[in-house]
Amino acid sequence: METRNGSVSKTFLIPQGNLTFGGSASVPVFGPPTLGAGVTFDANKFGASLNTSHTIGVGTTTTAAGRVNVFDSRPHRIDASAFHTLNTPNHGPMSHTTGVGLGYTHVHGHGVSASVQHTSSLKQTDLGVKGNVNIYRDEKNSLDANAAINTSFGPSGPSKPSGSVVGLGYTHAHGHGVSASVKHTPSLNQTDLGVEGKVNIYRDEKNSLDAQAAINKSFGPSAPDKPTVSGGLVFTKKLD
């Protein structure tokens, strides 16, 4: 399915950090468009954001998030984070999701994080751990490996891991990139393979145009026979 995306943003440099206002639009060939807006404040020791998106005919999602640095001794850094999301569908009850996390990053690109979140409407709590290892890096190229595992607790009690993912990703300083991943979901007895890529078509100081494409294939008792293919163009503009 082809999707056309666009976004604009404006960043103000203030003594305490960077303040960015932004807006976005996503228009798929099939399905309703989604409009979004948000504001982000980012500094070395802390940050906060408020973002909302509305899918016409479906509903609105609003997320408030914050981050605090608890340890920073180059090359090591530890940050704590929290968020709250309100989902307001056009039809159906509202849903609240609240989460907290702790993440470690290394200046060479390695990192590991753990998170917990609770969704009120599902009466479900999700635990997740993910990690990233930089395999190779120079001035223009970066190759990373990543892995994640999640498990859920709900009305039926603790479950076995609800999903695990391993992947490999390459990025170029000019905006190109490609990644591959394998995801397994025990509850569905399903394994998903995915490959996605991005090519920067045009870039200057204020504008960027990228082409994106992805293909996914699922294997399992209820998996579709054919792979899913998607692609689109993304235009980004920085306002004066």
From TrEMBL:
Cited InterPro entries: Attacin_C
Leader sequence residues: none
Keyword line: Antibiotic, Antimicrobial, Immunity, Innate immunity, Secreted
Pfam families in alphabetical order: Attacin_C
Keyword Secreted assigned: yes
GO BP term, example: innate immune response
Subcellular location: Secreted
Domain Attacin C-terminal: 57-157, 167-238
Cellular component terms per the entry's GO annotation: extracellular region
Domain of life: Eukaryota
Coiled-coil positions: none
Chief place where the protein resides: secreted
Family, per entry: Belongs to the attacin/sarcotoxin-2 family.
Identification of the protein by name: CSON009409 protein
Encoding gene (name): CSON009409
